[in-house]
Amino acid sequence: MPTLPVPTFTQVVFVLIAAFTVISGLGVVVARNLFHSALLLAATFFGVAGLYVMLEAEFLAVTQILIYVGAVATLITFAIMLTRGAMHGETNPLNRQWGKAALFAFLFLVGLLGYLGGIPWPAPFQAIQADEGLIARLGEQLVTRYMVSLEVMGLLLMVALVGAILLARDDKP
Amino acid sequence: MNALGLLLPELILLVGALLVFLLDVAYDTDRESGASYGLVSGLFLVVAFLAAFFQMSLEPQQAFMMDIDAFAAFIKMTVFAGMALVALAGGRYMNRRTYNQGEFWTFFLIVSLAMSILAGANNLVLIYITIELLSITSYMLAAFFRDELRSAEAGMKYFLYGSVASAVMLYGLSFIYGAVGSLDLREVAGFFVQPDLTEELRVAMIPATLLALAGFAFKASLAPFYQWAPDTYEGSPTPVTTYLSTASKAAAFAVMARFFVVGLSALDVEWVPILAGLSILTMTMGNLAALRQNNVKRLLAYSSVAHAGYILMGLVAVAANAASGMDGLNGVLLYLFAYLFTNVGAFVSLMAVEETTGSVEMEAFQGLIHRAPWLAGMFTLFLLSLAGIPATGGFLGKFFVFGAAVQHQYYWLVAIALVNAGIAAFYYLRIIRTMYFGSQEDAGSRLELPLGMQATLLICTLATLWIGLYPPQVLDWVNTASQQILTAVLF
After folding, report:
1. What was the pLDDT predicted at B31?
2. In this predicted model, what pLDDT tens digit does every residue of A57-105 receive, in sequence order?
3. Site from A152, A157, A171, A172 to mutate, B interface, most B CB atoms within 10 angstroms
4. Cα–chain center distance at A28
5. CATH number for the domain whose boundaries are A8-92
6. Is the pLDDT of residue B1 over 50?
7. What was the ipTM of the complex prediction?
8. CA nearest to B109, candidates A82, A155, A153
9. In the predicted structure, residue A35 carries a pLDDT above the cut 60
10. pTM for the whole thing?
11. Nearest chain B residue (CA) to A108
12. Domain residue ranges of chain B, discontinuous segments joined by +
C-alpha cells in the first residue's frame, strides 16, 4: 500500500494563506455591497503580506501592511462611507456581461496553468546570507541604481495628487 | 561628461514642469497667465529638443538604466518636436477653455518627460513606472474639460482600459523576471542565447510576451487593444488628441522596439508571427472602421489606429544586416517622424475648423476651399501624405516599411497592407472632395486663423515636403539610430 505524502508544516500554512487570499480576492469581485468589497480587499492585502512573509521578504510584508492595509484600504473605506448611498444595499451590481467575464477569466486561468504549470522555473540566483543587511542594500540600490525610477515614482505621486484634486474639486476659482 | 549630464533633456523638462507648477502656486493667477505658461513650456521643449539633437552625435552609452544612443535621441527629437508644435498650435485653444492653466502646462511637460525617458529605458522596472507616469498623466489630460461629458468619458474609458492593460503587462513582465532573474533588457537578451537554455523556458516566454504586449499594444493603440482610442481621441481636448496619436505613439513604439529587438532578439521565431498578426488585424480593423465615419475627428482617430498597424510591419521585418539598407527599424523611425508632422498638421487643421465653426463633422468641411484656401491646401497635403502619395513624407515612411517587409519575403503581409492603403486613400480623398466640391452658397464666411496655428501648419507643411522631397538628412539620422541598436543585437 503506497504511503500518502504527508504535507510539511510550511505547505499547510501556504495552502491556508493562499486559500484565504484567493477567496477574499474572489469576494471583492462578487460581493454585492461595495463596503463588503472594500473590507474583503483589505483581507486580500493581508493574505498577500502573509505570502511575502513565507518568501522571507519581511520588509515587503510590513510595507504591504503599512501602505496597502493602513493607507489604501482605509482610504477606500472612508471614500465609500462618505459617499451618499454607497453603504447599504446592492451598491455593487453585477453587469450583464458577468457570465462571459467569469468564463473568460476561468479559461485564462486554465490556459495559463496548462502553459506554465510544467515549466522548470530557475531557482533564485543568490541565497540570502545570515545577518546580511537586506534593507540597507535595498535602500542603497534605490538611491543609486534605481534613482531615476525612484524620482519618476515621486513625480508620478505628485501628478496623481494634483490631478485627483483637479478632477474632483467642485468649485471654480 | 558625467552621468547626470546624459540626462540633460529629461532634467530640462523636469525643471520646466516644476517651474510652471511653482509659478502657478506662488502667484495669483488669472486667465491671462496661461499664455505665459505656454510660452515657458514651449521654450523648455525647444531647449530639450536641442539637447536631444546634441545627443544624436554621442557615442552610445548607458546611464541610470537608460540607453543614451542615437535611437533614443531620435525618438526624443520626434517627441519634443511634436509636443512643441502642439503647444504652439493648441496653447490658445486650451487656455481659452480652462481655468486650470498652470496644471495643464505642468502635466504637458511631465508627459513629454515621461516619453523622453521611455525612449531610452532599458530596464523593465523603469519601463513599467514610466509607462504608468505617461498613462496617468494622459488620463487626466484626456479628462481635462471635466465639465464636458465627452471629455470626462474620454478620460474614464482611457483610464479603465489603461489600468487593466498595465496590470496585465506587469504580470507578463513578472514571468520574464521569473525566468531570467534580471530586469535589465541586455541581461534578458543574454539569458536567452545561452546554449543550455531549456525548451520549456523558451516556450514559457510566449504567454509572457503576449501579456507584456497587452500593455505596449494599448499605448500604441494596436488591435485588439484599440477600442479606447476612437472614444478617447474624439472626446479629449484636440491638442491632447494630437499628442496622444503622434508623440505618445512614437514613445510606445520606441519601447516595443527596444523590448523586442534588444531584449528578446533570440526569441524572434516566437514574437515575429504574433506581431505580424497584430499588424494585419490593426490596419484592417482601423481602416474598415474609418471608412464609415462622418465625424472627421473620429475618422482621423481610426486612421491613426491603422497607421499603427503599418508601423508595426517595420518591427516585424526587422533584420540586422539588410542589403538594401531597409532594416525595418529605420522604417519604423522614418514612419514615426513623417507621421508626426503629417498628423499634427492634420489635427491642427481640424482644430482650426473646430475653433471657427464649432464642429468637426464632415459638413463643417463643406467648401473649405472658398473660406480658407490656404488651410484647405495644407490639409490636402497632410491627407495625401497620410494616404502615402509620393513626394510627401508619408510616402517615404510607407516605402521603407513595405520595402523591409518585401525584403523579408513577407509578400502576404505587403499585399494586405497595400489593399489597406487603398481603402485608406478612399476615405482621405472623401474629405478632400468635400473640401473642394462643396457648394459655395452654404460655405459661410472666411476663416481667420490665430498666428500660432498658422505657424504650426506652415512648419508641418514644410517638414512633410522636406521629408518627402529631400530626405538625405533624415535618412542619415534614422540609419545611424537603427544601426546603433542593431549592431548590438544577435540575430
Report:
1. 66
2. 888 899 999 999 888 888 888 888 888 777 777 777 777 788 888 899 8
3. A152
4. 12
5. 1.20.120.1200
6. no
7. 0.86
8. A155
9. yes
10. 0.90
11. B207
12. 6-486
B106 against B95, higher pLDDT: B106
> B132 vs A137, which has greater pLDDT?
B132
Q: B242: which residues sit within 8 A by CB, 6+ positions away?
A: B82, B86, B89, B90, B343, B344, B347, B348, B351
Q: Contact at 8 Å (CB) between B240 and B204?
A: no
> What are the cell numbers at A103?
468564463
Q: Compute the distance between CA of residue A153 and CA of residue B294 in angstroms, rounded to an integer.
A: 42
B346 min Cα distance to partner chain A (Å): 29
Report DSSP state, residue A70: I
What's the gap in Å between the CA of A13 and the closest CA on chain B? Answer: 23
Residue B140: which of A112, A124, A167 has the nearest Cβ?
A: A167
Spans of all domains in chain A: 8-92, 133-173
Question: Taking Cα atoms as reference points, which of B189, B30, B219 lies closest to residue B115?
Answer: B219
Give the residue ranges of DSSP H helices in A85-132.
98-116
Q: Point out the residue among A111, A124, A160 whose CB comes nearest to the CB of B136.
A: A160
- Alpha-carbon gap, residue A87 to B235, rounded angstroms: 32
The β-bridge partners of B123 are B184
Contact B201 A115 (CB under 8 A): no
**CA atoms of B334 and B475, how far apart (whole Å):** 7
C-alpha cell at B316: 516585424
Q: Does A163 touch chain B (CB under 8 A)?
A: yes
Q: How confident is the model at residue A2 (pLDDT cuts 50, 70, 90)?
A: low
State the greatest distance between any 2 C-alpha atoms of chain B, in Å, as a whole number. 76
Say what the pLDDT of residue A85 is: 73
The residue count of chain A comes to 173
User: What is the Cα A160 distance to its own chain's centre?
Assistant: 20
The residue among A121, A147, A150, A159 with the most chain B CBs within 10 A of its CB, best to mutate, is A159
Beta strands in B42-198 (DSSP E): 61-63, 66-68
Residue B475, min C-alpha distance to chain A (Å): 32
| Amino acid in the structure at residue B162 | G
Measured torsion, CA atoms of residues B30, B35, B36, B38, in degrees rounded to the nearest 10: 120
Residue B271's nearest CA partner among B284, B255, B260 is B260
What residue type is assigned to position B415 of the chain? Answer: A
